[in-house]
Each structure stands twice: as C-alpha cells, then as structure tokens.
Design brief:
Blueprint (H helix, E strand, L loop, with lengths): L1 E6 L18 H11 L3 H9 L8 E6 L4 E2 L3 E2 L4 E7 L2 E6 L1 H5 L12 H6 L2 H8 L9 H9 L6 H8 L36 E4 L2 H5 L3 E5 L10 E2 L14 E2 L4 E3 L7
Antiparallel strand pairs: 1-2, 2-5, 3-4, 5-6, 7-8, 8-11, 9-10
Helix pairs in contact: 1-2
Amino acid sequence: MVMLQTTNNVFNKKLYNFVKPQSLFAWQRVRVANMMANGGEEWSKIMTRYNSGTYNNQYMVIDLKKIHLKSAIEDGALWVVEQIPSLVEAGDMTPILRTGYWPSYNVPYFEKVYNMSGYPEVVAKMGTDFSYQLAPRAKIFRRDEGKVVDLDTMKHIMRYNDFKNDPYSEGNSCNTICCRGDLRDADPKPSGCYDTKVSDYKMALNFEADIINGPTRGTGLPPFSWTSEFNQTHMGLPTTYNFDFLRTSPKFKTP
C-alpha cells in the first residue's frame, strides 16, 4: 500500500469543543493503520478509532495489489479518508481514479466534512479559492492533467508555478500548484510549497521515490534564498535552494 495526505483547514472553531484527551494523535493512529491494514477500507477503520480531531487531513490510501497496468483498476484501489473533530468520513474513490486522476489540494472532498469545517462561509466571504471545484489548483489540475504522461511530466505539474502568465493564478504566486509565498506582492513570507515527492507504480513496489527540497523554480522563477527580507532564524539551512530531484530508497532490503 501507499499512503499520502494533504492537510485541510478547520475554520469552524466550534468543532474543537469535540477534542478530548481520551484519544490518540493522528500520527499514532496513522502509523498503526499503516502497519496493520491490508487495504484502504481496513486502513480507514483502524485510523478512525480514537479520533483526536487534531492534525486534520485528507488521507489517500492506494492498494497496489488492485492496480493492473494496462489492464484494470479493481474496486478498492483508492480509498480517501478525511478527518475533523468528531467525524472521520471515508470512501472508495476508485471510480474517480479510473477517469484519469485524483486531485488533492487542501480542500475537503466529502460534502459533510467540507460544510462542517466552515468552508461555505469562507467561500461566501473570500471567494472561490477555498471551493472544492473552483480553487485555483482544482482548475489547473483539470486543465493540465492530460499532459501528464510519464514521471518527468508528473514532476512538472507538481512543481508548476507560472503565476505571472497563468490566468487561473491572477498574478498571485500562491494561486497555483506549488505556492511561492516569498514572491507575493503583499506581505511576502517564506511559506508555501517547499518540497515535492513523486513516484510511479513500479518505483513504489521498490519503495523508491524522486524527491526535491526547496520552493519551486517554476517557469522562470528565481531560486528561493534566505535574504535580509526574511528576518527569521534558519540555522543549518542552505542559503539558496537550487536543487534537482534525487532518487531515494530505504536502506533496508525487502524480503
């Protein structure tokens, strides 16, 4: 199995009234589920027990046993799990995966989770950046996912930032796939998308991934550097992030 996650916001602070100490932190439940589960549905049931309501994420669990290259994707290949205080919702999203791709961009998919988290109120106040269907990354993924044909093009879309030219970005360096908070016109900060991990089916079977550290260079963007503009401690970190992808794998040997 492969598990990945993106964090969702909880704008409705009343939900935190449901957080109780008689629970287990997300990292504990996720780690136990990773070790015990034999599929996405079982993973979701294990992870749901003793929900702490802290570190609220969308989890995507891929069962590689159910994927047959150039043949078929069985039901249960992709389970999606979303957690908020008092609720964990999960479902088999394989039918969507079969259409081409499953997107994830820090906005809840499940309507109940979306509504309880307070997203409709934020959209009404601030616009569609927090809409599941109309967030900038949702629109960019829909437009460009057909261009992903191999690992290199997957790397490209996951590091994509052409905010100066892309109409969906509207000139905002964070309204894109890989945000550069340091390039914002107003209140720039060293925040946003600061790494990328990419794998494919065959690599995943060998526990391999290509990884890169640092904010994206996107389309003609300067590498991020710790300049005097950012008066923040960064001891031990490189001054400038201008790296390429590296192939990584664990040191242990599989049976």
